[in-house]
Amino acid sequence: MARIVTIGGALQDIYFIDRDDFVSTEIGNQSIFGQLIIGSKVDIDNISYEIGGGGVNSAVTFARHGHETITFSNIAHDSAGEAIVSRLDEEGIDTSFINFVPRKNTGCSAILLDVKSGERTILTHRGASSKTDNFKADDLSLINPDWLYATTLGGNMNTLMDFFEKAHSIGTKVMFNPGVLELQNSKQLIGLLSETDVLLVNKSEASKIVTGETLSELIYRLSNYVKTVIITDSSTGGIATNGSETYRFGIYEDTKVKDTTGAGDAFGSGFLASLASGKSFKDSLIFASANSTSVVTKLGANRGALTGKEKLHQMPIQLL
Hints:
- This protein is an alpha/beta fold and 320 residues long.
- Helices cover 30% and strands 25% of the residues.
- The chain has helices at 54-64, 79-90, 139-143, 157-169, 180-183, 186-193, 203-209, 215-222, 263-275, 281-296, and strands at residues 3-7, 11-18, 24-27, 30-33, 46-52, 68-72, 74-75, 99-100, 107-114, 120-125, 147-150, 173-176, 198-202, 228-232, 238-241, 246-249, 317-319.
- The longest helix has 16 residues, at 281-296.
- It starts with a strand and ends with a strand.
């Protein structure tokens, strides 16, 4: 098994679950929750407290796979922060590098979930997770991990570069799943890609980094910067290359979606969890898809994360 460090957000996710009040209404090419009237009081069917954030979601998959997992995140000394640490402890994740930020609340998301459709709207307060300049890249030398799995740091490119450069100086490989704010800073992002071993983006995100209309065009151009690139494409699957093999893959299975929160984190961490266990590139893509599929069938961004011990069935995947 490997030693893996995750860096990214840690939030408490509070689900407000209902069957009829969150029904969508179409306005032009947009869908909104059209049954909520301003000034009214709405009785909902259920509520659930979960944990989420890119750093936390990926850490859960790694730990369940048996990897030694350490996470870098920011929380506060409050009930939400306590809930996050308690759950990470249950999963066997090392929380000694989590920072407690003063005068902040732990990040929190209110998720309005329509049970019938599985669609949700997320109201997020980043809180302590919005602070990203207190992470110390030199701490990687104390941990000496095999992999660094980086999610969004709210566009803090300097901290990401510090971690990526430190990682490679000590022989640690880097997998990167950038967020919206990282993608907005294209020049510095290209610099980060030179220090990235595995890049995970969706098709829309890929088109913000390089030009191209098709998955083949996008992955060809991204592979000029990163050896291993994975591009997902919503419910159709995606494409991936490691420099010697290129695969076009579909979805693991067509299943009823309960909650799509955390699907991308589950795919990325599922891929690395399998790869770091010594599985092939192809098998790691299959596990990534299976892990993402399992997560969306459960409530919460990581409750459905697999362990790697499950017997998986075949899925559409073709060597190009």
